[in-house]
Amino acid sequence: MEDGTDIEASGRPDPRRGIPVGTPEQFRWLHGIVKAVLVLNVIDAILTLVWVRAGLATEANTLIDELVNENALGFVAIKVGLVALGSWVLWRRRRHPFAVIGIFVVFLAYYGILLYHLRYASTLIRNTLQTG
Q1: pLDDT at residue 64, as a whole number
Q2: Residue 45 and residue 61 in contact, taking contact as beta carbons nearer than 8 Å
């Protein structure tokens, strides 16, 4: 396959390359999902800093918990860098079904985290309005 496709000249999938996944349109959508993961990760980092610095929460990841309290820029850089690296690896492997599944799992995880942040924020606002 010199042209980089997963289809042999006979029209059948190349067994050495695995199951072909995706059309150009599907990959555009998938690329948008990867971008959304990166944006959701930045939002998570910022909101985590806000909650932790305000004394309203603690970082759930014990590997970087101390970094949140001691070096906000380092925390954001490591968090964004690791997620970007993982996203890049999954994107590079996007023609493999497990990489596509991984991209969706990561997106759903960060989407869930965003919903958690929003619920937490709405609870804080509601409590403030009720006691204020």
Answers
A1: 85
A2: no
Say if residues 37 and 87 touch (Cβ distance below 8 Å): yes
* Secondary structure of residue 13 in the 3-state scheme: strand
d(C-alpha 39, C-alpha 111), whole Å: 10
Is the alpha carbon torsion for 111, 35, 88, 62 positive or negative?
A: negative
The predicted model gives 64-72 an average pLDDT of: 88
DSSP string, 4-65: S-SB-TTSSB-GGG-S----HHHHHHHHHHHHHHHHHHHHHHHHHHHHHHTTS---S-TTTH
**pLDDT, tens digit, 9 for 90 and up, residues 106-115:** 999 999 999 9
Give the span between the Cα atoms of 97 and 116, in whole angstroms.
29
Report the pLDDT value the prediction gives residue 20, as an integer from 0 to 100: 64
Is the pLDDT assigned to residue 77 strictly greater than 60? Answer: yes
Q: Which residues pair with 7 in a beta bridge?
A: 13
